[in-house]
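Need a sequence for this fold. Nothing fancy.
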């Protein structure tokens, strides 16, 4: 077993899957989720989702931004569409999202490329999304988030609607768990990992009231998925960055192991 310890900040169930992958690679880890995914519960938001799902056959293209988007969307789709309508092209942001769609027998037209950044920008570069003038596109995602997909598709002439299915919330126990994991007596050769800009923001917010803990965390290597999140991390005071090509397990683990092998 390696002397390094990886701090996992992902929400469940992704945290446990990532921990298992790290264990297979001989890496110790501790899970401190700084985000929890919860289905929208507000009646107005749920009614909005219901109406979009009922009218999903009006769309020519459907984009899923994450595995969570697939999971929550399929719960709604299963309730109202025993058989999915024909004539819709399905798109995924990243290979993990595409695999989640494959599990429910939804064929993906494009995912942005296996070896690319596998983010919104990579998907928008796909030929299948260049000529969309006059088409209706629905984007399945959480509440809030980046607007680059919708903004760019609208510039290309598409009519775009969001189907916002879940919230990203800060877990009630996150601060306590983080304090315990990074307490002086518990410290090891720690590497902190974040898989999204939202997770980084939550981690920074949890550290802010604890100056000594924040200083320690900022001295540790921080593994991030891509240059966009790396830029956010630098602004937050993290300068020891390990930048993976994207947020896939393969890319994150490859970058992590490359660092460990040379230190």
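Here you go.
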């Amino acid at each position: 077993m390696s002397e390094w310890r990886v701090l996992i900040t992902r929400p469940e169930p992704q945290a446990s899957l990532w921990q298992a992958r790290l264990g297979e690679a001989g890496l110790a880890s501790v899970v401190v989720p700084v985000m929890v995914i919860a289905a929208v519960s507000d009646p107005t938001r749920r009614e909005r989702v219901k109406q979009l799902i009922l009218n999903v056959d009006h769309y020519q293209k459907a984009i899923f931004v994450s595995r969570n988007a697939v999971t929550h969307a399929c719960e709604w789709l299963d309730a109202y569409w025993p058989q999915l309508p024909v004539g819709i092209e399905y798109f995924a942001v990243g290979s993990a999202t595409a695999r989640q769609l494959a599990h429910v027998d939804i064929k993906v037209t494009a995912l942005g490329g296996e070896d690319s950044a596998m983010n919104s920008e990579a998907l928008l570069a796909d030929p299948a999304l260049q000529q969309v003038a006059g088409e209706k596109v629905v984007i399945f995602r959480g509440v809030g988030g980046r607007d680059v997909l919708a903004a760019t598709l609208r510039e290309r002439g598409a009519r775009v609607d969001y189907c916002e299915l879940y919230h990203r919330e800060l877990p009630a126990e996150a601060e306590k768990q983080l304090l315990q994991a990074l307490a002086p007596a518990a410290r090891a050769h720690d590497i902190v990992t974040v898989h999204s800009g939202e997770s980084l923001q939550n981690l920074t917010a949890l550290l802010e009231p604890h100056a000594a803990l924040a200083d320690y965390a900022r001295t540790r290597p921080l593994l991030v998925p891509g240059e966009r999140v790396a830029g956010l991390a630098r602004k937050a005071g993290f300068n020891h960055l390990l930048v993976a090509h994207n947020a896939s397990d393969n890319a994150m683990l490859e970058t992590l192991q490359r660092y460990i092998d040379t230190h």
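For context: The chain has a mean pLDDT of 93.
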